Amino acid sequence: LPQSVFTSTINAVAYDPTGTVLLPQFSIGSGWRSMVSFDSANHFIVAWETTGSSDNTQQSSLDTHAIMYELVDDTGAATGTVLRDEFRLNSASFDPGDATLWPYAQMSANAGLDADGDIIGVYEGYGPDTSDFLTIPGDWLSSQINASTNADLLTYFDPATEDLTSFITFPGVPDVDNVIEQYLVRAANRGANSEQLGRLRAILDGVAGLMRGEANGILGSRFDADPQFNTLVLQSDSVLNAQRDGHNSRYYIVMDAGLNWESFTLRLLNERLGGFEDVTVNNIQQNNVFSPTLAVQRIDEVLEGADRTGVNWPENTYDGPVDVRLVDFQEILDRQGTPWEIRDSFGNPVNPLNAYVFEVTFQGETHDVDITMAPVGTARAGGADVAPPDVVMFERGFSGTPQTEPSLGVTPDGSFVVSWTQWEQGTDGSYTNKSIYYREFEETVDTAGPIVTDLVAPDGTKIDDGDVVVTDDGLQYLVVTFDEEMLAYDQATLEWALQERDNALANGLPVPAAVKQVLDSVTNPENYRLARNGVL
After folding, report:
1. What's the sign of the alpha-carbon dihedral 171, 175, 177, 180?
2. Domain check: are 206 and 144 in the same one?
3. Is the pTM of this model over 0.85?
4. Per-residue pLDDT, 168
5. Number of Cβ atoms within 10 Å of the Cβ of 424
6. d(Cα 138, Cα 157) in Å, to the nearest integer?
7. CA distance linking residue 405 with residue 389, whole number of Å
């Protein structure tokens, strides 16, 4: 990996097990922190990190790229043929020039191949936010809140009768914290004490927390099989680590209900980007009268149009990088006297009779990022300059526990194990120690193959293509090996399936799906054909 002040390029040499050069030094591309992985079919893949093109916040971020090669051909001759030219692992695309979906940085690339050419890529960095408008079945919480476990919490949340959803009490809440919060506010109003509120939060967060965005974690993408068959992205930027504890930045804009508002200006700072940006919210009147409904739309449009909130999260598809809602009268009252009370910048509870309250949640491309939003200058209302609306931070954005340095192992059938380092934190946010975690993922989608790797005689001799087997006692069986685990049923189950199929066909009925699955068994002799000189 030769480097200089100005450039960093990746070169490679391929050797056989004796140290003999198979492929003399050749150039991979520009970048650093490279790795290589092989499959059982003499293919290899090189992955690395590189400075990508402008990301969706107009910055040049780090990307993870890869190239797949053939090491030797069917005759054993070294080729180094490129099977898949340079492609991108993060925001998975076979065109590395495509716009990335997630900004900032994806790095520490690792890639692996299974036996039929599927590609798995893992890396660390900023990734998805899937928490918008979530619903989780109550059944998922029933083992933790029931008549014998945490029974005292049934008054506040009963998994047998309700789900954990965005739509229970507060209209249009947009993220995990907000979803949990509405149940906690309801519980507080039903008389839950502090210990019960803390316990309920821990239980709800233990399930809903897996829907949080990941701003500093381990991510993965999967690409469909051998280039001879498909060029298809199976998964992109999946979050692989289970601990997801970041929080979105959330603000309340409190506007005096006695003023006929015309416009106001907000200043935005994004911790991951330099400088600040001023945006003006205007056109918030209808027939010369301030419209709270129109204000929701315009605040959303103006903030989403800012450079510091990204450009690739369109409203119709992803609900944008910002969510704005008008907090209704009843919700403001429900929150009063609870830890989630809405207060002005002086710490006084907001009176819903005197104020409009707009909640702004930074999500999408800005999830789990510390965003600073503050009023700047004077505002306009009733044809005059007035003090700007009160802007109150309710939740500071936080990227959560960092996971770094992923490592990858892939089995021939496409299952894989990922390990990583996690920086553990104390309650004060300081790092206390590092731990190593791993997760195993089992392939459930078979995209190509299986491939027969060997044909073996009863005495253990490998039979190559064109070989003639001569035996005094006759050939009673052959051993066929495949490049991945095969579906296999015992003889009794197979005989049952054959009978069920014959019965269905005799009666003009469709063959049941359960029967078809058994008939696909590798132990079913009907799935094989013997040919001699090309003739069955």
Report:
1. positive
2. yes
3. no
4. 66
5. 12
6. 9
7. 45
